[in-house]
Design brief:
The complex is a heterotetramer. Chain A is elongated and about 105 Å long. In chain A, the strands form two sheets. In chain A, strands 2-3-5 form a three-stranded antiparallel sheet, with no helix packed on it. Chain A is built from eight helices and five strands. Among the domains of chain A are: 123 residues, Alpha-Beta Plaits (2-Layer Sandwich), CATH 3.30.70; 62 residues. By secondary structure, chain A is mainly alpha-helical. Chain B has one domain. Chain B is globular, with a radius of gyration of 22 Å. In chain B, helix 3 crosses helix 10, helix 4 runs antiparallel to helix 5 and helix 7 runs antiparallel to helix 9. Chain B has twelve helices and no strands. The radius of gyration of chain C is 22 Å and the shape is globular. In chain C, helix 3 runs antiparallel to helix 4, helix 5 packs antiparallel against helix 15 and helix 6 runs antiparallel to helix 7. Chains B and C meet through helix 12 of B and helix 5, helix 6, helix 8 and helix 15 of C.
Chain lengths: 284, 370, 378, 160
């Protein structure tokens, strides 16, 4: 029987002590609130007294960045990556071709060019393992101690997953041609074509038996396919044209603007003729 | 004693039509007002609860949604626009009905619960005379109506065709029916002392003598038993086993969504307000100001009492009790179902019965002394 | 006289209740097939594998360095312990002697991680029995440890910090004083947890005497860590077979004493974790005060290519005895890597100790076992 | 492993066991004897291996599978590693009744490597789905192209 009353007494006592604690937290809310209101207060701001400056950090794992001018294409980082999110292509100058690949900031002569250096940040697991083997220290996580090299990049959220693939290479098509690797360029373009076709695949749509809609010129039309550029016979013109076209298609621009851009691009090159321009305009 | 129905009836009696049609008007108008009151109550209470919880947990709570570009910063009203955002969200959400559910019962059950809450409001005063209908059996009516909701809960749990829901409904039924008893016993104690079931009589008794909570040691204990029992009856933590989110997902509300779910929410918070109002006018002096606690001051001092300021006093008391309920919720763990029954049957009911016995003796002695 | 003629009329059927994989308190994607008779549970069958990520298969095609980030992802609440235990296995295979400073740093981060992991365990157990406020408080304090780790290696949850042969970075300049500051702040908080949760009568009623795990049953099932120590065993690898530099520190091994009920109940398993946080703080303070100077990359192997052989190494993680069984074929990738995960064994005892209790108790027992599904399913 | 354990075991099971060169593990030649040896290891008062730390299966290629048992005594604090290496068709006696840890570990070894244990209470898959084909940790395992009609993503060409 006494246990019965002790239990009731215990319950009342501990309940009151617990409630007094929560009330204290309610009362002292100004000092105790620990929330960091993220989009308004970002990490290095002094409001949040976590006690240390971001210069004190060893490293901040925010986003991988490559100083591509320093990259010698040794592929060490690609090999170190456990999830294969780094993709590097390199081209060595062919025999007998005199091509200057440039120098890094450490005065190392580059032996090859890097036409592709993509990092898929949607797959990256921020393990930092690619950073250590780099002989030129050109791949690193941005921010923190690397702040002088590159600002911290908190949120690089994108609407499409593919936009998280960051391309660092700055090698132009002309350079690839100069180095004597036309075949690489062709292969790449055919791949882009393939992807582009894949993007436009709609699956097995049910057959609609109604009459085809009249091809009225619509203001915001997006009907042209990259295949239509096949009317350009000259390869030297076709490649840059397709590139511009593809870029413009990504941006979701009108057909008219697409064709205008293509014309503007190829009119600078040799082999351009007014007939070709007329042909392109006829596409619309 | 007047009530709202009487006043409205006398106010519109100049229209020369049948008294029965006028009566319909006189009943519908307070009904609408009460419904709006319930809706307002849930909007404000949810915000209040979220903020109280946040500050107790060292968080800030809703902060982003302001009104008209006004944001209070890290203040209590920091995200006051959340009230409207929540309402719009709840009312426009998709209403999902499980394929194998009993569709009719599932549709009906939220409205039975909300009807129970609305019906209880008829007997609840907001100030002296501000009551829809002042029955002579007011307290009995409140006890009866507050358990209508359990029918809706069982229907909701059964019709969802979900094991978790059924568990929740069965637990809820057992819990509400059990806790009716200590609630009834403690209200009976008050009725014995003041000799009336009518709400206005109970408050008038307190105005003449003293608040019931300080009337005798036994009524003091009775208040706490009553309050904890009503917390249990409204399914709030630490007695929230019917909807225990870590065990039963959401209990009997698991399969409900959108508007139906917001109706549940509305009735839950309405019940909280109802029980707080009942506790205030039965034990805490209703619409009387704090000067009347022991009734020692002469009548000329009681300038803080009156019809309009009475609303304020009653609501202050009720809101404080609602806050205490929230305070419970954000402090305590949840009880197990057998412990819940233990507390009811082995602690509260013996104590209430003992209370009932001693208070009658107390009254006999006090009556013979005076 | 009344007499029940046919008993089958009133006897209730048993019901199969499917808890999870999507359920608020199964700590991840665990599925429990519960056979109940009303509220009383007669059998619990855990069904695992919903988070299986082929860790062991992956390891057979990754080099030894590349495995470290994957071990982090096994027990994501105690990543430092996982990479530390894996590194110890590889070092045993390579026969490496580590610099003193590396061992001290490893001990410091491991004990900080133990506090962080136990904070989650304590808070989540409160959440499982219905107390929400202690959970947010423990998360608030864990956040400070994560801040320290972020300062150390840049990552907040999955660190890739402890490597075979060393650690990735030396301590940053202000780390030692910040850690001291954190401990000064943290120790009074434990009293607050005790005040709001451990000594609360409702909490005691919910957890004391519930799900009692007898010591022999625990050992037979391979239960380790705080879960076994709650049953009264002093089995702790840090004391029994001190690896790293644990033999240099003075600390106690808290065991369950049945303060509120029987030895080995949920409350004991919970309270051992609370006490262990204090002991970890003690170890950290000693290590911070006596940390020697040195180079942390001194013996870091350039390329890990261990000789042929096999090794089994053990480690006391926040959840128990982590074992790594590695067979090397002399290549730069392991031939076979098996992780003995503590929570895997701890979970297998669930049916034994929760059968016969109520539905709510199954949740409490599951919470007190402190499982991490990432580690169970691997 | 101490000399003492070797002595005790050598005396009792001379014919059916041998030790590896550096004497850190015990090989059992005849798996059918494992039943008896395990009981002896568990119950002998000088050995008292009451705690099975780990049970790992491994593939030796050439149609041979192995199981390594890492035993520990919590009271006497000594270790023993026992290994059984058999042709993949031969079944190994289960120890799930002695050390109940072995229940799930043996299921895992069966699941991932296809090692069969006799007298196991319920030998079925534990980590993989019930209808998965093959045992992934075998060296000759090839990932199937489809599982229940869904393509198994082997490389990125499926989505890139």
């Amino acid at each position: 029987m006494s246990q019965y009353f002790i239990n009731i007494y215990d319950a009342v006592k501990t309940m009151i002590s617990g409630m007094s604690l929560t009330l204290e937290h309610l009362r002292k809310k100004k000092d105790l609130v620990a929330t960091l209101q993220y989009p308004n207060e970002k990490w290095p701001q002094p409001e949040r007294h976590i006690g240390f400056d971001h210069k004190d950090y060893n490293v901040i794992r925010s986003r991988l960045h490559v100083d591509i001018d320093d990259c010698i294409g040794c592929m060490q980082c690609e090999r170190a990556c456990p999830v294969d999110c780094i993709k590097i292509d390199t081209i060595k100058p062919g025999k007998g071709i005199d091509f200057d690949c440039g120098e890094t900031s450490n005065d190392t002569r580059k032996k090859m060019i890097v036409p592709r250096f993509t990092i898929d940040m949607s797959e990256c697991m921020y393990c930092n393992l690619c950073v250590y083997p780099c002989p030129e220290e050109c791949i690193y996580m941005v921010g923190g101690p690397n702040e002088p090299k590159h600002d911290i990049d908190y949120e690089y959220s994108k609407y499409v997953k593919h936009d998280l693939v960051f391309e660092f290479s700055n090698v132009t098509d002309q350079q690839i041609v100069d180095i004597g690797a036309q075949s690489y360029l062709d292969e790449r373009n055919s791949k882009i074509d393939k992807i582009n076709q894949g993007v436009n695949l709609k699956g097995n749509e049910p057959q609609v038996s109604s009459a085809p809609t009249p091809a009225a010129p619509v203001q915001a039309s997006d009907t042209l396919e990259i295949k239509c550029l096949d009317i350009i016979e000259d390869k030297m013109l076709k490649t840059p044209a397709k590139k511009v076209f593809f870029k413009s298609k990504r941006a979701g621009e009108d057909d008219i603007i697409k064709i205008d851009k293509v014309i503007a691009e190829i009119s600078k090159l040799d082999g351009y003729s007014p007939e070709l321009e007329q042909k392109l305009k006829d596409l619309l | 004693m007047t009530s709202i129905v009487d006043s409205i009836l006398s106010a519109i009696s100049f229209i020369n039509i049948d008294i029965n049609i006028l009566l319909i008007f006189a009943i519908v108008i307070p009904g609408l007002v009460l419904f709006i009151l319930m809706a307002l109550n849930v909007m404000i209470s949810v915000y209040f609860e979220r903020k109280v919880a946040a500050f107790m947990q060292d968080r800030l709570g809703p902060m982003e949604v302001g009104i008209f570009g006004f944001k209070g910063g890290k203040k209590f009203w920091g995200g006051i626009g959340q009230i409207f955002a929540d309402t719009v969200k709840l009312l426009t959400k998709e209403d999902i009905m499980p394929a194998n559910a009993d569709k009719v019962l599932m549709l009906v059950s939220p409205f039975i619960i909300v009807a129970g809450a609305l019906l209880t409001f008829i007997g609840i005063p907001f100030s002296d005379g501000l009551i829809v209908s002042d029955f002579n059996i007011g307290i009995l009516y409140i006890i009866a109506m507050s358990s209508v909701g359990v029918i809706g809960v069982i229907l909701a749990g059964w019709s969802s065709n979900n094991k978790w829901s059924l568990y929740g409904a069965m637990r809820s039924a057992a819990q509400i029916i059990s806790y009716e008893i200590p609630i009834g016993l403690n209200l009976l104690l008050i009725v014995i002392v003041c000799g009336s079931l009518q709400v206005s009589d109970i408050v008038q008794w307190q105005a003449d003598n003293r608040w019931f909570i300080f009337h005798s040691p036994f009524t003091f204990v009775a208040f706490f038993i009553f309050f904890i029992s009503v917390v249990a009856e409204t399914n709030r933590t630490p007695f929230d086993i019917p909807e225990a989110e870590s065990e039963l997902v959401a209990g009997w509300m698991t399969e409900f969504s959108g508007f139906k779910w917001s109706i549940f929410f509305m009735s839950e918070y309405a019940n909280m307000l109802i029980v707080s109002l009942v506790a205030s006018f039965v034990f805490l002096g209703g619409w009387l100001s704090p000067f009347t606690i022991f009734n020692v001051f002469p009548d000329s001092w009681l300038i803080l009492d009156g019809f309009y300021i009475g609303i304020f006093w009653l609501l202050i008391k009720a809101i404080f009790l609602v806050f205490v309920m929230m305070w419970f919720r954000w402090t305590f763990p949840r009880l197990r179902v057998d412990q819940l029954m233990y507390i009811c049957w082995k602690v509260f009911i013996p104590f209430s019965l003992a209370n009932l016995f001693f208070v009658t003796i107390w009254e006999l002695i006090a009556g013979s002394i005076s | 006289m009344f007499k029940i003629i046919d008993k089958s009329i009133i006897s209730a059927d048993e019901m199969v209740l499917n808890m999870g994989p999507q359920h608020p308190s199964t700590h991840g994607v665990l599925r429990l097939k519960i056979i109940t008779d009303g509220e009383i549970v007669s059998k619990v069958e855990p069904i695992i594998g919903y988070l299986h990520r082929c860790f062991e298969k992956h390891c057979e095609s990754l080099s030894y360095e590349q495995i470290v980030p994957f071990t982090d992802r096994c027990d994501y609440l105690a990543s430092m312990h996982m990479s530390h235990s894996y590194s110890m296995a590889v070092e045993k295979l390579l026969d490496l002697e580590l610099p003193e400073r590396v061992e001290y740093i490893r001990v410091i981060v491991a004990e900080l991680q133990r506090i962080a992991s136990h904070l989650i365990a304590v808070g989540v157990f409160g959440l499982d029995v219905g107390a929400i406020t202690p959970f947010t408080w423990t998360l608030r304090d864990r956040e400070r440890i994560l801040d320290l780790f972020e300062m150390l290696c840049g990552a907040r949850l999955l660190y890739n910090y402890v490597w075979p042969g060393g650690v990735s970075h030396d301590l940053p300049p202000k780390f030692i004083e910040e850690t001291h500051k954190f401990l000064d702040y943290f120790l009074p908080q434990i009293d607050e947890y005790n005040q709001i949760l451990s000594t609360n009568k409702i909490f005691i009623e919910r957890s004391a005497d519930v799900g009692v795990l007898p010591l022999e049953v625990g050992i037979n099932y391979g239960v380790t860590g705080p879960t076994l120590r709650g049953s009264g065993s002093t089995f702790d690898l840090r004391k029994d077979e001190p690896y790293s530099v644990y033999n240099k520190f003075d600390f106690d091994v808290p065991v369950g004493e049945g303060l509120m009920g029987t030895v080995g109940d949920c409350w004991d398993r919970y309270y051992v974790k609370v006490l262990e946080m204090k002991e970890s703080a003690k170890i950290i303070r000693q290590a911070l005060d006596s940390i020697p100077k040195g180079d942390v990359h001194e013996v870091l192997p350039k390329k890990i290519r261990p000789p042929k052989g096999e090794v089994y190494s053990r480690y006391e993680s926040a959840r128990g005895d982590v074992g790594f069984y590695i067979r090397s074929a002399g290549k730069n990738m392991p031939d076979r890597l098996k992780m003995r995960s503590p929570a895997y064994c701890n979970l297998s005892v669930l049916n034994e100790i929760s059968a016969g209790w109520m539905m709510s108790d199954v949740i409490a027992v599951l919470g007190s076992l402190d499982i991490v599904l990432g580690e169970i399913d691997r | 492993m101490s000399i003492k354990i070797i002595d005790i075991l050598d005396k009792k099971f001379k014919d059916s066991i041998n030790f590896s060169e550096n004497q850190n593990s015990l090989f059992i030649d005849d798996p059918s004897k494992w039943d008896k040896i395990s009981k002896f290891l568990h119950q002998n008062k000088d050995l008292k291996f009451d705690y099975l730390m780990c049970l790992s299966g491994y593939d030796l290629t050439d149609n041979k599978l192995g199981v390594a048992y890492n035993l520990y005594s919590t009271s006497l604090k000594h270790y023993l590693e026992v290994r059984i290496e058999v042709e993949s068709e031969i079944e190994i006696p289960s120890v799930a009744n002695l050390w109940r840890t072995a229940n799930w570990h043996e299921r895992e070894a069966y699941d991932l490597l296809g090692i069969k244990f006799t007298d196991h209470p319920e030998l079925k898959r534990i980590l993989l789905p019930e209808d998965w084909e093959g045992h992934p940790l075998k060296k000759d395992y090839e990932t199937p192209d489809f599982y229940n009609g869904m393509p198994v993503p082997k490389d990125k060409s499926y989505w890139e």
